[in-house]
């Protein structure tokens, strides 16, 4: 009885123990399972290099990653040839195991036991990826177990393609070259997607022994490993026998290839704005390379003149994308500002903004291309602009003033248009460096009083090209793009229409060419180009911009330090580089006339105003929606005797004894200078002796000194006061003038009306009387020196 009871309790205890054991085992398995799923998904994390690619994918330049490795991101999926070779070499059962290959483990264990040392590790690609993610820790048994666990966890979280992608991205390929894309670029000079079978096989064996790539006796070992892998690929049917034989003929790379450096300044600028990774630029790689050579040659010539820096920007007008970007000259000019991106650096604009004012005024109906603009000595609120040649033309057509880049007409037009208005319009056009209020710039805004960048300047000229080709009724300004695939932000409504833009480009075709410069002679006369130059005050900045239907080319030249250079100018310094660049661009003809945005009007032939005073007229084109309503105020219908020798009026002649003739009669100051440039300019005939002259006629003007002027007399080398040279213009070329200062007679002049005046300090009154008794006076003040 006791035995039966004892046996019953023994069986019950055993079953209870078994139940507890199973519970503990289940709990342990649950904890292990939970722990397994709590393991991190171990993937490599490392910074990327900044990689700049051209529009067609060519490499333009790159920067080291933050950890000083060359690690180019994969642009897409890893190349299939490399993946096939990699799996065949490293992990043949990759697609059938879950991160650990039991067969490989058994083989490795047997090999290691037979050798008495570790000769095989049985690492799968997943295990190798885990090692890469953990910075290659020491090879110990516990570490190997953890590595297998992490590999299993990795396979649970990622699919096979993701694992291969990570491996191809982060595998080492010798030195500080990481990733298959980097290796393809550094060893073969092409993208990984373009690798041959031989190249893919070589890269597949490299992560297993990266040191083999270095020159020396190890190269034969690398070649043998590559060829054995190629043979395996043939045997497995991955490549044909012909492909195998051809692959064997391909040599190993001799050395690591240098990275291209055709766009270092663009790379630096974009690296500051973009996160590390691949930057897809709109650059035309072939054009960039060709213009780099042009920049190098022209840069050497400029250096001989003391000009150490230059920048060149080419914009494709079809989509307002940047085709070439050279931010500076060569990088080997130590201490000359060679690392500064001068396309983005604000510089004094010189007169490069004049075409924009011209286009805006055409659109607003404030000018016509042939309208005469005064070009006489001018002083406005103490500001006295001068033309580059220090000459005056009296009156000049608006389009000719633009072509000749005359400063005085430009200042007068800006005053007419309004500084604040123009300031706002420039900002609307994309000028991003006009930070000060318009009043701070004043009229100097049109002559270099503001700073702007080559990026903004070339962009605004490209807008003219794009607008002139537009057929939209409500075109907008669009930003210039340098990144492919970037969405163009909607710009502000364009204040320049196709007609005004086209007329402006037409006027810019007439710019005088830079002398006998070789590059202009090479730029065939049959090619049409609109272009403009500019030079800043102090000879610090030389500008040149050209526009063709396809391209806008902008050039800046000078010194990054801001140091001026004697003889520097837009024409002599920047234009040769401009035309050297244009010679590398295809001819794109000329802009079609935007007939839909132009209208024909009759204008006075020699003044460009609406007809009045019987002037001879010509047909001219104006923007369709402009409201040009300025009537010629300088044409007079004058009555003369039948021979046209004398003027007469109704008081001294009968109706049938006089004839009417139209005369262009400019104000005396304008006529004085205009007559020098236009010998056929006709003065009004004198009045017949029995006729009385009109008292409303302005016969003469004082050119200098200005009304109310206050100044010091100039001094000679001995410190003695020099005389003041006063000047008067008279309508009649043969007029005789009598001069007085403070009612004291000074003398008489004929033909050339200048008078040397010596006077003490204080208020002065200059009076001039002609032979008809017409008198004109001018008050001014000579300031005392102490």
From TrEMBL:
<dbReference type="InterPro" id="IPR001460">
    <property type="entry name" value="PCN-bd_Tpept"/>
</dbReference>
<dbReference type="Pfam" id="PF06832">
    <property type="entry name" value="BiPBP_C"/>
</dbReference>
<dbReference type="GO" id="GO:0008955">
    <property type="term" value="F:peptidoglycan glycosyltransferase activity"/>
</dbReference>
<keyword id="KW-0808">Transferase</keyword>
<dbReference type="InterPro" id="IPR050396">
    <property type="entry name" value="Glycosyltr_51/Transpeptidase"/>
</dbReference>
<keyword id="KW-0378">Hydrolase</keyword>
<feature type="domain" description="Penicillin-binding protein transpeptidase">
    <location>
        <begin position="314"/>
        <end position="539"/>
    </location>
</feature>
<comment type="pathway">
    <text>Cell wall biogenesis; peptidoglycan biosynthesis.</text>
</comment>
<dbReference type="InterPro" id="IPR001264">
    <property type="entry name" value="Glyco_trans_51"/>
</dbReference>
<dbReference type="GO" id="GO:0009252">
    <property type="term" value="P:peptidoglycan biosynthetic process"/>
</dbReference>
<feature type="domain" description="Glycosyl transferase family 51">
    <location>
        <begin position="76"/>
        <end position="233"/>
    </location>
</feature>
<keyword id="KW-0328">Glycosyltransferase</keyword>
<dbReference type="GO" id="GO:0030288">
    <property type="term" value="C:outer membrane-bounded periplasmic space"/>
</dbReference>
<dbReference type="GO" id="GO:0008658">
    <property type="term" value="F:penicillin binding"/>
</dbReference>
<dbReference type="InterPro" id="IPR009647">
    <property type="entry name" value="PBP_C"/>
</dbReference>
<keyword id="KW-0511">Multifunctional enzyme</keyword>
<dbReference type="Pfam" id="PF00905">
    <property type="entry name" value="Transpeptidase"/>
</dbReference>
<dbReference type="GO" id="GO:0006508">
    <property type="term" value="P:proteolysis"/>
</dbReference>
<keyword id="KW-0645">Protease</keyword>
<dbReference type="GO" id="GO:0004180">
    <property type="term" value="F:carboxypeptidase activity"/>
</dbReference>
<keyword id="KW-0121">Carboxypeptidase</keyword>
<dbReference type="InterPro" id="IPR012338">
    <property type="entry name" value="Beta-lactam/transpept-like"/>
</dbReference>
<comment type="similarity">
    <text>In the C-terminal section; belongs to the transpeptidase family.</text>
</comment>
<dbReference type="InterPro" id="IPR036950">
    <property type="entry name" value="PBP_transglycosylase"/>
</dbReference>
<dbReference type="Pfam" id="PF00912">
    <property type="entry name" value="Transgly"/>
</dbReference>
<dbReference type="InterPro" id="IPR023346">
    <property type="entry name" value="Lysozyme-like_dom_sf"/>
</dbReference>
<dbReference type="InterPro" id="IPR011815">
    <property type="entry name" value="PBP_1c"/>
</dbReference>
<comment type="similarity">
    <text>In the N-terminal section; belongs to the glycosyltransferase 51 family.</text>
</comment>
<protein>
    <recommendedName>
        <fullName>peptidoglycan glycosyltransferase</fullName>
        <ecNumber>2.4.99.28</ecNumber>
    </recommendedName>
</protein>
<feature type="domain" description="Penicillin-binding C-terminal">
    <location>
        <begin position="692"/>
        <end position="776"/>
    </location>
</feature>
């Amino acid at each position: 009885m006791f035995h039966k009871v004892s046996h019953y309790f023994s069986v019950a205890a055993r079953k209870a123990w078994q139940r507890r054991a199973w519970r503990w085992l289940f709990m342990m398995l649950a904890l292990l399972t939970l722990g397994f799923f709590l393991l991190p998904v171990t993937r490599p994390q490392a910074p990327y290099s900044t990689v700049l690619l051209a529009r067609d994918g060519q490499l333009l330049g790159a920067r080291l990653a933050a950890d000083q490795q060359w690690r180019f991101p994969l642009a897409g999926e890893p190349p299939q040839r490399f993946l096939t070779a990699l799996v065949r070499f490293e992990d043949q059962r990759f697609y059938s195991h879950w991160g650990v290959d039991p067969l490989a483990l058994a083989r490795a264990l047997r090999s290691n036991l037979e050798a008495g040392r570790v000769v095989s590790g049985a690492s799968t690609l997943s295990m190798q990826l885990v090692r890469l993610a953990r910075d290659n820790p020491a090879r110990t048994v516990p570490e190997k177990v953890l590595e297998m666990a992490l590999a299993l966890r990795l396979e649970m979280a990622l699919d096979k393609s993701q694992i291969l992608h990570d491996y191809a991205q982060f595998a080492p390929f010798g030195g500080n070259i990481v990733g298959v894309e980097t290796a393809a670029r550094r060893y073969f000079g092409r993208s990984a997607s373009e690798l041959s079978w031989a190249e893919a096989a070589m890269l597949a064996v490299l992560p297993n022994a990266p040191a083999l790539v270095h020159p020396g006796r190890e190269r034969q070992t690398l070649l043998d490993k590559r060829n054995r892998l190629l043979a395996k690929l043939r045997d497995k049917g991955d490549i044909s026998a012909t492909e195998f034989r051809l692959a064997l003929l391909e040599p190993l790379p001799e050395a690591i290839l240098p990275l291209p450096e055709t766009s270092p300044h663009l790379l630096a600028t974009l690296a500051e704005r973009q996160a590390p990774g691949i930057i897809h630029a709109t650059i035309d790689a072939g054009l960039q390379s060709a213009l780099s050579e042009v920049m190098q040659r022209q840069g050497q010539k400029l250096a001989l003149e003391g000009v150490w820096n230059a920048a060149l920007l080419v914009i494709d007008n079809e989509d307002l994308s940047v085709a070439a970007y050279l931010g500076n000259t060569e990088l080997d000019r130590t201490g000359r500002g060679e690392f500064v991106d001068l396309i983005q650096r604000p510089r004094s604009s010189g007169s490069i903004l004049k075409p924009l004012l011209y286009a805006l005024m055409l659109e607003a109906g404030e000018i016509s291309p042939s309208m005469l603009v005064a070009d006489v000595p001018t002083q406005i609120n103490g500001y006295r602009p001068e033309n580059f040649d220090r000459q005056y033309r009296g009156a000049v057509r608006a389009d000719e003033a633009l072509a000749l880049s005359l400063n005085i007409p430009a200042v007068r037009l800006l005053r007419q248009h309004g500084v604040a208005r123009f300031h706002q319009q420039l900002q609307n056009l994309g000028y991003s460096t006009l930070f000060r209020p318009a009043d701070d710039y004043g009229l100097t805004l049109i002559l270099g009083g503001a700073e702007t960048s080559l990026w903004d300047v070339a962009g605004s000229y490209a807008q003219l090209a794009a607008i002139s080709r537009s057929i939209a009724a409500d075109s907008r300004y669009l930003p210039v793009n340098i990144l492919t695939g970037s969405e163009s932000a909607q710009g502000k409504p364009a204040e320049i229409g196709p007609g005004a833009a086209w007329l402006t480009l037409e006027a810019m075709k007439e710019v005088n060419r830079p002398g006998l410069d070789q590059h202009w002679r090479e730029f065939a006369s049959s090619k049409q180009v609109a272009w403009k130059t500019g030079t800043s005050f102090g000879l610090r900045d030389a500008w040149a911009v050209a526009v063709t239907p396809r391209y806008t080319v902008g050039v800046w030249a000078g010194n990054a330090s801001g140091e001026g250079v004697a003889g520097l100018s837009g024409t002599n310094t920047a234009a040769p580089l401009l035309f050297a660049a244009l010679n590398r661009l295809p001819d794109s003809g000329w802009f079609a006339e935007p007939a839909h945005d132009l209208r024909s009007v009759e204008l006075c032939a020699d003044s460009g105003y609406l007809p009045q005073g019987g002037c001879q007229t010509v047909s001219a084109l104006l923007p369709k929606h402009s409201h040009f309503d300025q009537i010629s105020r300088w044409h007079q219908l004058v009555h003369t005797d039948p021979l046209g020798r004398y003027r007469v009026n109704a008081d001294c002649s009968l109706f049938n004894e006089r004839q009417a003739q139209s005369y262009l009669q400019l104000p005396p100051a304008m006529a004085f200078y205009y007559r020098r440039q236009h010998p056929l300019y006709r003065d009004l005939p004198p009045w017949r002796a029995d006729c009385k002259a009109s008292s409303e006629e302005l016969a003469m003007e004082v050119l200098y000194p200005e009304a109310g002027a206050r100044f010091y007399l100039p001094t000679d080398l001995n410190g003695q006061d020099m005389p003041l040279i006063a000047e008067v213009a008279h309508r009649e070329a043969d007029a005789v003038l009598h001069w007085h200062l403070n009612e004291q007679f000074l003398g008489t002049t004929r033909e050339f009306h200048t008078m040397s005046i010596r006077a003490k300090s204080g208020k002065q009154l200059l009076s001039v009387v002609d032979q008809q008794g017409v008198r004109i006076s001018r008050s001014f003040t000579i300031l005392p020196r102490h």
